[in-house]
Design a protein that fits this description.
It is built from six helices and six strands; from the N terminus they run βααααβββααββ. By secondary structure, the protein is an alpha+beta fold. The strands form three sheets. A two-stranded parallel sheet has the order 1-4. A two-stranded antiparallel sheet has the order 2-3. Strands 5-6 form a two-stranded antiparallel ribbon. The longest helix is centred in the middle third of the chain and has 25 residues. It is elongated and about 70 Å long. The protein starts with a strand and ends in a 15-residue tail after the last strand.
Length: 226
């Protein structure tokens, strides 16, 4: 079972968003089970559960883990193909976010568009690497920092922008034969607290520095204010 997989097919995305099927996926992520075993957990007849399992199996969201005899019946034990799923913007190709439509480093919605593109691109790369049976070379950095003031936050982003820009200029080799372009995305946003996850911290500004090409250094970021 994979830790996480990306759903790119619109029909598979629709299947995963069905509340009952989502519950079945959650149950099967915990371990293999048959339709009869799941029926009691989700409060549905076995035949109805089996119907939903077949739909999930058709879209590659669950798979056969084994079979076992129970009386005169052979039960199919199913398992989820991943512990969790992410729906790629490709599933909504006609309306997927396009960060190139506008570029505003202080726009939370532009940051969201960048995040959506990140899911789309990495999902596509994972699919290709899996088919080619190759490892995908990526890197991610995640952390938290508490700023004492908006001025400190603005200074941090200025230094971050300058530092990333210097690294891009240092290592960029646009004429290197056999080289491969890499996208760099750096984001800063307020931490979402569990007790306020449904409300946005609208008083805080968020910024992002993003290099569409290795040769383009991030621009200076204006001071952020609350």
């Amino acid at each position: 079972m994979l830790d996480v997989t990306v759903i790119e097919d619109p029909a598979a995305a629709a299947a995963s968003l069905d509340p009952i099927r989502g519950r079945l996926l959650a149950e099967l992520a915990a371990g293999p089970a048959s339709a009869a075993m799941l029926a009691g957990k989700v409060g549905l007849p076995r035949q109805k559960v089996n119907y939903h399992l077949k739909a999930l199996e058709r879209h590659g969201l669950v798979e056969l883990a084994g079979e076992r005899r129970k009386g005169n019946v052979t039960e199919r034990l199913m398992r989820a193909t991943a512990a969790s799923y992410v729906i790629s913007p490709i599933a909504l190709a006609a309306v997927q976010p396009d960060p190139d439509r506008f570029r505003d480093q202080l726009s939370a919605r532009w940051l969201l568009a960048l995040g959506a593109r990140l899911v789309r691109d990495v999902g596509t790369l994972i699919t290709g690497a899996t088919k080619a049976r190759q490892r995908l070379a990526t890197y991610a950095l995640d952390g938290e920092v508490r700023f004492a003031s908006a001025a400190d936050r603005a200074a941090f982003i200025q230094e971050l922008t300058a530092g990333v820009g210097a690294l891009i200029r240092k290592y960029d080799s646009p004429d290197a034969e056999g080289g491969r372009d890499h996208r760099i995305v750096v984001a800063v946003h307020p931490t979402v607290r569990p007790e306020t996850s449904g409300a946005a911290d609208t008083a805080d500004a968020s910024g992002t520095s993003e290099g569409p090409k290795a040769s383009e250094a991030p621009a200076a970021v204006p001071e952020l204010t609350d």
